[in-house]
Specification:
- It is a single chain.
- By secondary structure, this protein is of the alpha/beta class.
- It has two domains: about 110 residues, Elongation Factor Tu (Ef-tu), domain 3, CATH 2.40.30.10; about 170 residues, Nucleotide-binding domain of ferredoxin-NADP reductase (FNR) module (Rossmann fold).
- The protein is built from seven helices and 16 strands.
- Strands 4-3-7-1-2-6-5 form a seven-stranded antiparallel β-sheet. Strands 11-10-9-8-12-13-16 form a seven-stranded mixed β-sheet, with helices on both faces.
- The two termini are about 30 Å apart.
- It binds flavin-adenine dinucleotide and FE2/S2 (inorganic) cluster (FES).
- Flavin-adenine dinucleotide (FAD) binds next to strand 4, strand 6 and helix 2.
Amino acid sequence: MSGAAYRVSAAAGRARGRDEGPVQETGEVMGSRRVGPYTLLDVVAPHVAVRVLPGQFVSVAVDGPETLLRRPFSVSGISGAPAGGGIEIVFETLGPGTVWLAGRDRHDAVDVVGPLGRPFTAPPEPAPCLLVGGGYGAAPLVLLGRTLRERGLRVDFLLGAATQSRLLGVMDAKRIAGTTTVTTEDGSAGRAGIVTDAMEDVLDANGSGAVYACGPMPMLAAVSEVAAGRGVPVQVAVEESMACGVGVCWSCVVPYRRDDGVANVRACLDGPVLDGARVDWPTLRTWWAGGAQSPELTP
Ligand SMILES: Cc1cc2nc3c(=O)[nH]c(=O)nc-3n(C[C@H](O)[C@H](O)[C@H](O)COP(=O)(O)OP(=O)(O)OC[C@H]3O[C@@H](n4cnc5c(N)ncnc54)[C@H](O)[C@@H]3O)c2cc1C
Ligand code: FES
């Protein structure tokens, strides 16, 4: 999808257009703190920070055994106000890469490549925007929400997680949004259920004319289907597993309906933000049922 005409700036007042395209930069950790089960890392990387747009990601070199590949993370915020200079990432500790990253201290060096991928784009027509996040998928939506608000658009949040402790970004959302609706699968906070149980009500209540979503792929499928079923434009930031992160290896493909048929697009290059109404979710579901994230990963 082409978004150049509707790009949204991550920081009002900063010059844009001169500083596009990814760079490799040795960043310096300025802070690390726990946010529930997640770690928020604030990294000074001014050349990346000045370029990043909501929905883009960075690829971080990690150390340790079995960590040859960089790890991708959404940029959740720009720090070092008012001039910027830092990027924030929020991540769950899952394996060796994120364990290593969670162990970084203030002033440690972190090698970052970014910003990568295509960002979210503003709605074609000014409209209230519904931002739907699942777990740490809320990370890029906070930056997006701030940006859409700067553009004068109404923003509403719908955030879901399995349980209260796994919700991310609720306080930020409340500062930014007209309304913030929370769902948890175990009912420990907000409405019991999953985000799509509440989505129709939230769309109706706010007259939402655009949906933006990030979270687990099955959630993105369901959110896209609800939005598309109502004719509401929907952009999803997919977090498909990535090896190279720069378009070379084709490990991250997503089946996508183009005007001339379905093609595999690379989430790292053509995404991570894709038109949710064009992602071929039925085919993706067959891949998931087969235990593969993409045909290329099938042994
Ligand atoms: C564009 C993009 C943005 C991302 N943004 C974030 C973010 O903001 N915060 C965050 O916590 N994570 C994010 N992820 C996922 C993150 O990259 C992985 O969790 C991380 O690479 C795991 O590395 P590891 O070495 O700790 O674990 P690994 O040993 O590589 O994996 C450990 C476990 O995590 C699973 N895993 C690995 N990659 C993914 C993935 N992409 N999605 C779901 N499960 C995965 C593996 O299947 C395995 O079960 C993002 C991924 C992509 C592609
Ligand atoms: S991760 Fe290599 S092509 Fe996308």
